């Protein structure tokens, strides 16, 4: 399984960014995709996860600001991030959950300046 993420960058506080991640390879057993992030000096944490059926779950810190969506036909997951805060600054990793294991992409940096 390969994951190709895009859409990171630098934005001011209150701004928006949209991350995309396309999965390829042996994805036929996958049942969910999501986004994790890791800020400097902190552990990687789950940001949002969505099942193939469209059921989504969010970290409390991003509820109401971030929206995850999935296009099953394209094997692509999106993360719309609005009202960004400096504490959202992190490397964001795309994730896909299969019947065997989780896979992570290479990460894309999101920087929110104050």
Q: Main traits of this protein?
A:
mainly beta; single chain; 55% strand; seven-stranded mixed beta sheet; 114 residues; 11 strands; four-stranded antiparallel beta sheet; 0% helix
User: CA-to-CA gap between the ends?
Assistant: 37 Å
Unreliable runs: none
- Topology order in helix (H) and strand (E) letters: EEEEEEEEEEE
Query: Helix coverage percent of residues?
Result: under 10%
Shape descriptor = globular
Q: Strand pairing plus helix content: what structural class?
A: mainly beta
Determine the number of helices (DSSP H or I, runs of at least 4 residues). 0
How big a fraction of the residues is strand? over 45%
* Total number of strands: 11
Tell me the Rg in angstroms: 13 Å
Biggest sheet overview: 7 strands, mixed
Oligomeric state of the chains present here: single chain
Taking all residues together, what is the mean pLDDT? 96
Any overview of this molecule?
The chain is mainly beta. It has no helices and 11 strands. The strands form 2 sheets. Strands 2, 4, 5, 6, 9, 10 and 11 form a 7-stranded mixed beta sheet that branches. It has a 4-stranded antiparallel beta sheet with strand order 1-3-8-7, with no helix packed on it. A hairpin with a 4-residue loop joins strand 5 (45-51) and strand 6 (56-58). It is globular and about 40 Å long. The mean pLDDT is 96.
Present the secondary structure layout.
Elements: E1 2-6, E2 9-12, E3 17-24, E4 32-38, E5 45-51, E6 56-58, E7 66-71, E8 76-81, E9 90-97, E10 102-104, E11 108-113
Parallel strand pairs: 2-11
Antiparallel strand pairs: 1-3, 3-8, 4-5, 4-9, 5-6, 7-8, 9-10, 9-11
């Amino acid at each position: 399984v390969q994951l190709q993420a895009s859409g990171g960058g630098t934005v001011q506080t209150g701004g928006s960014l949209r991350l995309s991640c396309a999965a390829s390879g042996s994805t036929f057993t996958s049942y969910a995709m999501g986004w994790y992030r890791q800020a400097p000096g902190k552990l990687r944490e789950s940001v949002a996860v969505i099942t193939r059926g469209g059921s989504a779950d969010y970290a409390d810190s991003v509820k109401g600001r971030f929206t995850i969506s999935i296009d099953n036909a394209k094997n692509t997951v999106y993360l719309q991030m609005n009202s960004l805060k400096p504490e959202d600054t992190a490397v964001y990793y795309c994730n896909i959950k299969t019947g065997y294991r989780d896979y992570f992409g290479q990460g894309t940096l999101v920087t929110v300046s104050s």
